[in-house]
Write a structure and sequence with these properties.
42% of the residues lie in helices and 12% in strands. It is of the alpha/beta class and 438 residues long. The protein has a domain of 257 residues: Type I PLP-dependent aspartate aminotransferase-like (Major domain) (Aspartate Aminotransferase, domain 2), CATH 3.40.640.10. α6 links the parallel β2 and β3. α3 crosses α13 and α5 crosses α6. The termini are far apart. About 1% of the residues have low confidence.
Amino acid sequence: MQNGLEPSPEEWDTWTRQVLDFVCKAPSPLGGEGWGEVFVPEQPLPGGLPAILELLAHGFHEAIPTVSPGFMAYVPGGGIRSAALANFLGNIANRYTGIEDQAPILVGFENQVIGWLCREFGLPDTAFGILTSGGSIANLTGIIAARVQILGDSGDFSKARLYVSDQVHHSVQKAAFLAGIPKNNCVNIKSDDVFRLSMPDLKSQVESDRQEGLKPFLVVGSAGTTNTGAIDPLELLADYCRQEGLWFHIDAAYGGAFVLCESGKTKLKGIEQADSITIDPHKGLFLPYGTGCLLVKDRSSLLKVHSYEADYLTASQRDSPASLGPELSREYRGIRLWLPLMLHGAGVFRQALAEKLELTYWLYEELQKLPVQILCKPELSTIVFKPGDLAERVNSYGRVYLAPTKLRGELASRVCILSFRTHFEQVQACLEDIRKAL
């Protein structure tokens, strides 16, 4: 007997055609008021799927257009359409991929991608990782691995200390608290004049904490801070952490993907020495939001935390996502990276990332000719400058979208070039609109 949740073949054919028509046509602005209350009809909405799609179009139009080629605010996320097809296929098949023997080939595809990332980052043969919902969960997973590896599982973390730059992404501090580390035990180390973590201040703080009987266990470096794109001194940090017996985690959610191109790999030298690395494929690999990743130097550090047994489960396996991360039930994230790599090849990703660095340097050279104060030479694809009130004026022209930030309490304008849709035409428009705003 067919129930109300299972469409007939004819209905399914109609729905898919209507959705494809919807995504293929250019979006148009819609009027009307937003929804001020929860609305769930007891019966199907009159007008069927076309009426529902019209409501969705209104919602999309009212949201910030992060897929636009002119979007250069925050850290842009383009969302390639081949990954959307991958999501569609994964959701339609709806196979369980938490434990390897339930879907061995599908989990194998995901693990191939993770292995490829490990090699691109220069990690050893013992390395592996887990795909997550984003950088926040990847950072949390990495911090918990560090906590268990260095401090054990006694549950007493009152003296545990971890160290971050004052430019670190706030998800790291949040993750530390969720991992059981008291808020005051996450120590901010001041950054230098180009917004990188200060090594002398870090060493002084760790020495002081040890003299007071505290337990330093983790240093977090950034490979591309959100504010400026700064890269902390990764090689120096790796050497120091190795000497001091500290876990070295790198938050490379924004900048990590640049290892795929030669110019970016040079800038990220030292990242291969990390104990764990957070990257966001939904940033630098242009995938839809909800695709993060944690890589670790030694797979056993994840198994030690996440591998559990239960009578109702098959025995945990070292290649199963459920044995390597916090989720048991999970969406099939691997397909949204695996399918685009199979379809496009890795080369186009490398080319796109190299292009973003070239565009950023071109804009940096041009901005130096204007009456603005550039706060630091860009290391990746972000430029910050004063005056800080330009973003609103630039945005009002409707061609590009920028977001301001604060650096040491002062407002700054900020451009971040990362969308795969952003090319010279859009960056040139950005420069023209900055001139006009000035």
